[in-house]
Design goal:
This protein is mostly helical and 214 residues long. It is built from 8 helices and 2 strands. Helix 2 runs parallel beside helix 4 and helix 7 packs antiparallel against helix 8. The radius of gyration is 18 Å and the shape is globular.
Length: 214
């Protein structure tokens, strides 16, 4: 069964080395990263994996982040997937270091003073603790559960590859902050939704039963 799935991935790989969300569609970083993670170490798929890896590496932006796709050259949460893939492949070069640095410097707007003042004046809009540093889908947005989980997975995997003690300590701090944010956003029944447990006084139902950062 696994071989059949990997054969499907290989047969749907685009000419540029990446994958789209559907066969025949243009390449995006998210499905490309997932396909490469699935293919890693599988005998017979090395060529397809290297083509995808070459594309992914070429898409990194000057600030260290990765975009959602080549046509949208803007920083994106998919940086976490690219960092995770570097960890899986054991690559800790300058590109990897820049990606980690970008993750460590990125946080949701709720940590800023403007949001905190608004939250203090109107606490009933959303029920959350704005002191926890977590991750948004893209810079300038509020933090959400899914990009935070992906960032936590990436940063936990970087522990064995980061040589700089200060950078390692910063990563450990952000991991603790992200985990606190996830627990803070947990819904009343113990599940999770995309962002907040309560908005405008209404309890939000969960959409995901378990976080995936462990």
């Amino acid at each position: 069964m696994m071989e059949a799935w990997l054969d499907f991935l290989r047969s749907t790989q685009n000419v540029d080395g990446g994958w789209g969300f559907f066969p025949g569609k243009k390449s995006w970083v998210e499905p490309t990263a997932y396909a490469l993670i699935a293919m890693h170490g599988a005998p017979g798929y090395e060529a397809a994996s290297e083509r995808g890896w070459k594309l992914l590496r070429s898409l990194q932006l000057p600030d260290g982040s990765w975009p959602p796709c080549a046509a949208v050259p803007e920083p994106d949460w998919t940086t976490a997937l690219a960092v995770t893939l570097h960890c899986q492949r054991g690559v800790s070069d300058a590109a990897f270091q820049r990606g980690v640095a970008w993750l460590l410097d990125t946080a949701g707007i709720e940590n800023g003073w403007q949001f905190r003042i608004t939250h203090f004046l109107r606490p009933s809009v959303v029920e959350l603790d704005p002191s926890f540093e977590a991750w948004p889908w893209r810079p300038g947005n509020a933090s959400w559960i899914e990009p935070t989980v992906h960032a936590l997975v990436a940063l936990k995997k970087t522990a064995k590859l980061i040589d700089n003690p200060r950078l390692r300590d910063r990563a450990a701090f952000r991991v603790r902050q992200g985990e606190k944010m996830i627990l803070d956003r947990r819904c009343a029944d113990g599940g999770w939704n995309y962002g907040n447990r309560k908005v405008l006084g209404s309890i939000c139902p969960p959409t995901r039963r378990l976080p995936l950062w462990r």
